[in-house]
Amino acid sequence: MRYLFALLLLLVPILGVWTFVEADRWQLWFPENVSSFGGEIDGLFNLIMYMVAFTFIVTEVALAWFVFKYSANRPGKGVFTHGSHKLEMIWTAIPAVALLFIAFSQMETWAKVKFESNFPKTGEYTKEKPIAELWASQFDWRVRYPGDDGVIGTVDDLERSYEFVVPVDTDVVFHLRSRDVIHSFFVPEFRLKQDALPGHTIPVWFRAEKEGIYDLVCAELCGWGHYKMSGRMTVVSKEEFAKRMAEIKAEWYSNGKEQG
Ligand SMILES: [Cu+2]
């Protein structure tokens, strides 16, 4: 009987590792990365996953071994122990070291993606001169591009809902804002997530390296319609971007009439 229970417990790590390996083939993992810093984010994700996988396997195998070893009939009474100072030191120190290791490993990437002092300064778009403002509200996304004056917040701004068009291979900086509650900008292919806070204007940057249409989703439960708060991130060539901006402008000034 104890063989059976030990084997059943061993099945847990075996099946666990198998699903980890197979998940990639079934495309249950992340979608393809298309941003310049996405590779580093994936590296951090894998680092934590391997640490967790190692701990998982060691503890599960130990569990199966103990079930096998100590389920045998033994004569006499069981002996209870309580409070081992040495053991407590060990199981506090090991996770502390692991957490410090993770904390130091991610610092550089975090600073690169999130610190405003590291934002692109030389390109067409900067923190002071963003490509657009992205407004989150219950339950949609709206993009506000600057008009001909290049300044956001003036009368010639161009506004559109749902789709955020950006050029490929370009450092893009935009301002993230919220009209009501906390939302979160998330484009899985960019490996980029940033909360939108009411009353705050938060600069966000990325560099998309592949043209395509990507899902823009809200990653913060923001109300009953959170599940349908979707948008689209469209990455196009620089020439196409100029064309799309002209279209957006024509549409905005068409007063609802069809464009010829
Ligand atoms: Cu939302």
Keywords:
single chain, 260 residues, alpha+beta, Immunoglobulin-like, 4 helices, elongated, binds copper (II) ion
Can you describe this structure?
This protein has 260 residues and is an alpha+beta fold. It has 2 domains: 2-114, no CATH class; 132-253, Cupredoxins -  blue copper proteins (Immunoglobulin-like), CATH 2.60.40.420. The protein has helices spanning 2-25, 38-70, 85-114, 238-253; strands spanning 132-137, 140-145, 158-161, 163-167, 171-178, 183-187, 192-196, 202-207, 212-218, 230-236. The strands form 2 sheets. A 5-stranded mixed β-sheet has the order 3-2-1-5-8. A 5-stranded mixed β-sheet has the order 4-10-9-6-7. The longest helix has 33 residues, at 38-70. It is elongated, with a radius of gyration of 26 Å. The protein starts with a helix and ends in a 7-residue tail after the last helix. The relative contact order is 0.13. The model has no long low-confidence stretch (mean pLDDT 91). Copper (II) ion binds at residues 136, 183, 218, 220, 222, 226, 229.
